[in-house]
Amino acid sequence: MDSQMAASTDAAQMVLKVPFVIGVAGGTASGKTTVCDMIISQLQNQRVVLISQEAFYHPLTAEQLEKVHEHNFDHPDAFNTELLLSCMEELKHGRGINIPNYDFKLHRSVEPARVVNPSDVIILDGILILHDPRLRDFMNMKIFVDSDSDVRLARRIRRDTVERNRNILNVLDQYSKHVKPGFEDFIRPTKKYADVIIPRGADNDVAIDLIVQHIRTKLGQHDLCKIYSNVFVIQSTFQIRGMHTLVRNAKTTKHDFVFYADRLIRLVVEHGLGHLPFTEKQIITPTGSVYSGVVFCKRLCGVSIIRSGESMENALRACCKGIKIGKILIHGEGKSGRQLIYEKLPSDIASRHVLLLDPVLASGNSAVKAISVLLSKGVPESNIVFLNLISAPEGLHTVCNKYPRLKIVTSEIDTTLNKDLHVIPGMGEFGDRYFGTGSRVITPS
Ligand SMILES: Nc1ncnc2c1ncn2[C@@H]1O[C@H](COP(=O)(O)OP(=O)(O)O)[C@@H](O)[C@H]1O
Ligand SMILES: Nc1ccn([C@@H]2O[C@H](COP(=O)(O)O)[C@@H](O)[C@H]2O)c(=O)n1
Ligand SMILES: [Mg+2]
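A: This is the predicted complex of the input protein with L45E5XJ5.
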């Protein structure tokens, strides 16, 4: 008996954007916040938010306030870690939150609360941010800022007297009673959880550059699949890398380019077909045995984005006999708007699953236009599977943010776009190389 089954992912399900979370710990005045600010200023094209653990200090009771000099702010119990955990859970699920706005002069939070929007990167900064294992579990990267304790004490005295209205004798007293023991007992022991230790804090430009590079790489490449659960990169093998090496090589002849591009396209198409819904079916084999299998989705069609997308039509026809293939031609260069020049689509496209074909996803502007044409014809967003050979992170961000319900299947995610919006490292002008109409090599910029 046939039964309708859901596809590998529920088409109607909203896509989860999981942020890249970085924890930055270290002793007081080690430079944690300064390091975080430097990282943020270098991650200009990402949505980054900084959350300080200090926002989650328990407010002091009237009784505790009277003896504030005895209060230990350097102990894990000083923080409302449960609240921080629930805030992280919200952000992880793409929901904005309000966090307390802590005042170091009043030892409590003040109005208004701080609004924190969902972001691509969340940086958590605090002396004991690596202490609780449940918080560490949220983190993709853990950093410990390691600065000399004399330097830290000097900075702390300066900061607390100048910015936090403290008396120097109280600062020194608090330091020896709570801050130093808290560092030895709870903060320094979390250094072992760090993936990266930054000696000299913000003075260590090299370490900060390496961290930023790592975050960019993680965000730009396969971790995009963590951020966007609708992005699927086909499993990399040496065979696939070898084919990419050939098609990306500027010296590869047209004949070889077409041969290896076709092989890669075929893999992407087969993978893309795996994201369509199917129907369960039992059959009898020649041995008389029952085999529980599935039947392919029948209501589908291809749509190629002219001209490069046409290179993917043969592979689609080879996989799906007699498939209808429509075409869309978009005009536009650079960052300016895109215009629809031509479209020829199956008249019943609204009732079909659509495999949208374009070997290179660069800025995502043409893709967004092409997808909007499909939507205007009544195709549900969740019925679209967009197939690429290579995708730039910028294009993935653009398309996934605008259309979180469609799926993108690609064989590799590249590093970035250059100023001319060419994918880097990329493979040059795909259409020219495939159809033999150009010999231009794009120089790196
Ligand atoms: N490398 C540095 N050189 C000079 N001053 C620094 C440096 N790093 C931090 N500071 C100063 O030290 C103080 C504490 O730094 P901050 O980044 O707030 O530390 P933390 O967040 O670890 O407590 C601030 O006044 C800051 O401007
Ligand atoms: N009301 C408070 C709360 C905290 N502290 C001290 O702040 C330090 C943590 O902040 P850093 O920016 O230095 O990491 C911590 O050592 C607490 O002693 C405070 O003095 N008063
Ligand atoms: Mg700080």
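Residues 29 and 152 are 5 Å apart (CA to CA). The first helix runs from residue 32 to 42.
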